[in-house]
Amino acid sequence: MSAPEVETVAGNASTVDAGSAAAHQVLRKTFGYDSFRGPQREIVEQVISGGDALVLMPTGGGKSLCYQIPALVRPGVGVVVSPLIALMQDQVDALNAVGVRAGFLNSTQFPDERRAVEAAFVAGELDLLYLAPERLRLESTAQLLDRGKIALFAIDEAHCVSQWGHDFRPDYLALSMLHQRWPDVPRIALTATATAATRKEIAERLDLTDAKHFVASFDRPNIQYRIEGKNRPEQQLLAFIQGEHAGDAGIVYCLSRNSVEKTAAFLNANGVAAVPYHAGLDNRIRATNQARFLREDGLVVVATIAFGMGIDKPDVRFVAHLDLPKSVEGYYQETGRAGRDGQPSTAWMVYGLSDVVQQRKMIESSDGDAMHRRQLQLHLDAMLALCETVECRRTQLLAYFGQPGQACGNCDTCINAPESWDGTVPAQKVLSTILRLKRERGQSFGAGHIVDILIGKRNPKVEQHAHHELKVFGIGTELRDIEWRGVIRQLLAQGLLAVHGDYGVLTLTDSSNDVLFDGRQVKLRREPERAKAARTAKPAKASRLAADLAPGDADLFERLRAWRAATAKESGVPAYVVFHDATLREIAARKPASLADLGTISGIGENKRAKYGEGVLEVIAGGASPEGRTITPPATPVAGAAVLAPGSTTASTSAAAPGSSSTPVARSAGTATSSRFADTTPRESAPAVRRSGRPTGQPHDTNPVAPSSRPAATRESGAPTSGSAAPAYDDIPWPDDMPPDFDELPPDFG
């Protein structure tokens, strides 16, 4: 496909308007959108003109376009540094679908495949080349880049450079060499999650201190944030999915691999299709489960945090956490994987005392110096504050990233506001019990045993230690067991209690003295009575997606989805690579009658219109069978669009678009960029095996590099395991350092 020719010379102020015009042409003709969103236009113009940029934009905000469009407008090949080796094939497939010639180099390829991509890069037959940071550190890779023309460097997931971050990758620290070796090549670093301090660290470590910073809004208004008390979490998760998201795609995060496996098995046993994903699985199993999640509708993936970065599936309707994330940054990035298409989605989490105890223990036993542990503690404190807040969760989440906000009306604390109550006396009772055990008996115990003493529960452990003889025995009968655990959880969150040792015993802190002896008030959060459902029970997924369409339009929408599923399966790509749901909804509502009309639909560029247009029009006319549709080029060539015949390796332009050169421009297509983890075509069967039992590479056609989409004048010719038996930590006396000493015993509540 060829866009109209535009004179652009990167960095020349006199051509800024021409560069902006070229960017809009690529946006419309290649990606099918009429206008930029938010700061996209300013970012694109900054990079096209040769300037550096540091971009902070939430998941689903359109970060990729901020480097893809400049790479197509500027002369040369855009080099994208990404940690997402497992997803590079899908990223390349999605670009190929819109006519962008993309390739990748990583360890999943065979030598002949890598050589083919390298040759295409040197020959100028690629628009974008994806590399892992580890590969970029190789001198051979640097020498390869020296042989070609580089349009820009895009550093994706730039927060991986932050040593205090949740996704630190040491190889990112070496990326400052990009500016040193190629000083004239513009760089753009992008991330969805970074505080002001993290942004400063990114700029310093990547040598981008002089780059222009762009910070989009962190708000994701379509996501409803909800955090509930943990009580039989697997049953809570099942009720949540069955009651609100039956048949929806979703991600469930767990802290340990064992918990991932058990939760996935539990969901499958209860009728929810789910697959596990964690670093302990075989590479092929991980690749297969990830591919299924991307390609199948309504599948749930249960995963550790090893999963999700770079996942471009737009219709993930929920993200659930069964364990407490380690930081607000991690929580925000993980929940941001829901609702990329802008449709209503849910970020749901269960949280309890065990989470606080476990996280505190992990920090205490973590590697690193005192500064490192202090940073981890600060991250956890912010996460606990978000869990325990009585204010709007969205407001607090935005405030963490330095953005003001107002009560949203779409989080649990707005919908069903909790109460704040004076918990000073209960706090004193807990602290008094812990202190008396230490001072009178020289003992320290975990939360469960402390609660048993407070409620006066004479079990064998209590009688074994004669704790029923303590003055504090039975002083807390006004609260239930679960309520006392909530009090202890909140005292831990507020720093009024600490967890020490391998067995999680509770000890006092310096701040405990203020509550016991100095009259400090303690405000606690009272959990509201939960309604049976935060939302009304939803109908089946298909009808939900078409809920606001007219009856006839809804039927057409479902037929379009069936056609898309068959087309995607035949092409060996995820369904969203063909069209997003939002595009199908607009088609169903507007019912375009011609290819020209179809070109006015958001998300349909010239390449997709040429490739899928006739099939869509047949479905609209009612004459297409959704199953088994073959993809054929349009009978009448589209003006300005490249028509790629089946099996062809070159593209030609049938007619120039208005304002373009009358001379058609053709570019030779690149070479294969397949991955040995990719499935074969057709996808009805398991991947075939090639050499050493590894799957074959190319997932669909033999020509994975699509015809060029750039304006013609710019082209160049050349943890602990959850679910296992927990140790009986209540019986272990204080093992190492002594807690703070106090001059007197606490008040006598007897």
Task: Detail the poorly predicted runs.
Answer: 1-15, 531-537, 624-707, 712-741
Number of helices: 28
Helix % is 25-40%
Q: Name the average pLDDT.
A: 79
What is the molecular shape? globular
Give the neighbour order of strands across the main sheet: 3-4-2-5-6-1-7
> What about the largest sheet?
7 strands, parallel
What is the terminal-to-terminal distance? 84 Å
What radius of gyration results from the CA coordinates? 29 Å
Strand content: 5-15%
Alpha-beta classification: alpha/beta
Count the E strands. 21
Chart the SSEs and their pairings:
Blueprint: H1 16-29, H2 40-48, E1 53-56, H3 65-73, E2 77-81, H4 88-97, E3 102-105, H5 111-122, E4 128-131, H6 133-136, H7 139-147, E5 150-155, H8 177-181, E6 187-191, H9 196-205, E7 212-215, E8 223-229, H10 233-244, E9 249-253, H11 257-269, E10 274-277, H12 283-295, E11 300-303, E12 316-321, H13 328-335, E13 345-351, H14 353-364, H15 370-388, H16 393-400, H17 412-415, E14 419-422, H18 424-441, H19 447-455, H20 460-464, H21 481-493, E15 497-500, E16 505-508, H22 512-517, E17 523-526, H23 541-545, H24 551-571, H25 575-578, H26 581-590, H27 595-598, H28 606-621, E18 642-643, E19 652-653, E20 689-690, E21 694-695
Parallel strand pairs: 1-6, 1-7, 2-4, 2-5, 3-4, 5-6, 8-13, 9-11, 9-12, 10-11, 12-13
Antiparallel strand pairs: 14-17, 15-16, 18-19, 20-21
Helix pairs in contact: 1-2, 1-3, 2-3, 14-15, 14-21, 18-19, 19-21, 24-26, 24-28
